[in-house]
């Protein structure tokens, strides 16, 4: 019980951000026309590559072989997610755009 | 927070770093907001991408570890090399992929994101095994499930992995979930020494990976849009959990935004199929719940010439595309057909069912690739009231989404699912490869309707012949 209380107190700010982000996310995304569902999903998918920051921090301070190997792998995968995700989204949206009059 | 962190945040560089995360979070929100309107969507993607690059740069330059040390020169070079390699590989993959293969591609990128989150959570655990926290374990579990699940989804969409429909999979999956929860509880409250806990954590990793596989394995076909969107949302949550470990606002907010967006899309897809999320995850759609209603009427075919005449002298034609159109790569020829008819004064629209295809909005992307103006793509709820005025409804490679059993047959597994009211049109032409059943494995009453005529053959081949038939008239 004390663990839980310590956790809740120490991470108050992060918990606030999480809870409010959920509402923000629902608010921002609702009422998207189905035309945009695929690009939106792929764009959101690219944003989930934000784990790339974690990868940079890990490789930045890696000391053991384990940290180097797994950290580099994580960073590489996250970069694939970010670069691939944004490029693919842009390709799809470009197709929607060029039809505009 | 300890004194060290307070000291760090008082240094100017740390303040810049922290606020660059805030800026990045704002850019993600603006980016997503802009991406919900067709006109601004592309700009939104640039905002989101910039929101990603900014914190990457500031982190690289300004990050300090607990001891106040910055990132060493050797590490900086390693990071830049890895990022360069990932960017080149990722961009090439993204540039080369065909629009019909987009669901696979998105699944694959989603898998890499999930794997990265799981790896980060794992390393952070091994660095401080004494401080095993719930969020770290959740990041590991959710990231692993998202990774292996997305890889299976990728394999299925690419035709490399088959479906396993079995009743017992439901129980296997429930068991896996129970084991995962139990191991998390053991690690957190079991009072084991660090060594044992590490074994447990690695065990947790393995179980989560296996669970991802067995979770996606029994789901297939028409349920794919739901699963992809659900896995997408899981990856976001995993990234947010990792962000929690670093108390990094950009990661938390970015991850949760994706989680929320994915959840909304998932629920919308479920609603479009009139099924609950639980039902999609644990219910096996393919086997059970066979319809008992007898089909009345008979199948009637139409010749290409008759179809060409019928279409040319119509006023309103609606094309209803489904996954068959994607498989046959028939989107370009479909556009040729609609512009040919358009030049003859026929009004042609496309009716898009929310779950047509293998990911949310799949049909829109394919038709956009073929240069069909998006004003011509009409959503289900907007086209249905107009269906009785439609002269010809052409169903191309769609099946369950036009099955009137959804209205008429309470015994049918798709009863209650919203459908496109093709049966209300004055004439119906169905392009189909054969008399196979749709994903739900049930008879389609529409095929036996008196107004329905069948055009058997591959969607692309049939439409090509139809176009030349109309031209020669």
UniProtKB/TrEMBL annotation, chain A:
Compartmental location: Cell inner membrane
Query: A GO CC term?
Result: plasma membrane
For whether the record's keyword set contains NADP, the answer is yes
Per UniProt, which keywords does this protein have? Cell inner membrane, Cell membrane, Membrane, NAD, NADP, Translocase, Transmembrane, Transmembrane helix
The UniProt record lists the EC number as 7.1.1.1
Q: Name one GO biological process term.
A: NADPH regeneration
Q: Which reaction does it catalyse?
A: NAD(+) + NADPH + H(+)(in) = NADH + NADP(+) + H(+)(out)
Task: Please report the record's description of how this protein sits within the membrane.
Answer: Multi-pass membrane protein
Top-rank lineage group of the source organism: Bacteria
* One MF term in the entry's GO annotations: NADP binding
> Any transmembrane segments, and where?
14-32, 44-62, 68-89
Sequence ranges assigned to domain NAD(P) transhydrogenase alpha subunit C-terminal in this UniProt record: 15-98
Q: What does this protein do?
A: The transhydrogenation between NADH and NADP is coupled to respiration and ATP hydrolysis and functions as a proton pump across the membrane.
Task: Report what the protein is called.
Answer: proton-translocating NAD(P)(+) transhydrogenase
Organism of derivation: Maribellus luteus
